[in-house]
Amino acid sequence: MKKAQIKTGFIAVVSALWVSVALFSQTATAQENAENQPWHELEPTVILISIDGARHDYLDRYYAPNLNRLANDGLRAEHLQPVFPSKTFPNHYSLVTGLHPEKHGIVENSIYDPEFDAVFRMSLKHEVSNPRWWGGEPIWVTAEQQGMVAGTFFFPGSEAPINDTQATYWFPYDGEVSNRKRVDTVIEWLEKPQAERPQMITLYFSDVDSAGHGYGPGSRQVGEALRSIDNEIGHLMAQLEQRGWLNSVDIMITADHGMARVDQTKHMIIDQAYSSERAERALYSRELAHIFAKEGEIENIVAELEANLPHAQVFTKETMPARFHFTNNKRIADVLVLADPGWIFAREFALENMQSDADFYRPRGSHGYDNEHPDMQGIFIAHGPSFKQKSEVGPVKMVDLYNVVARILDLEPAENDGNPAVVPMLLREQNNEQ
Question: What start and end residues bound the annotated signal peptide (predicted)?
Answer without folding.
Answer: 1-30
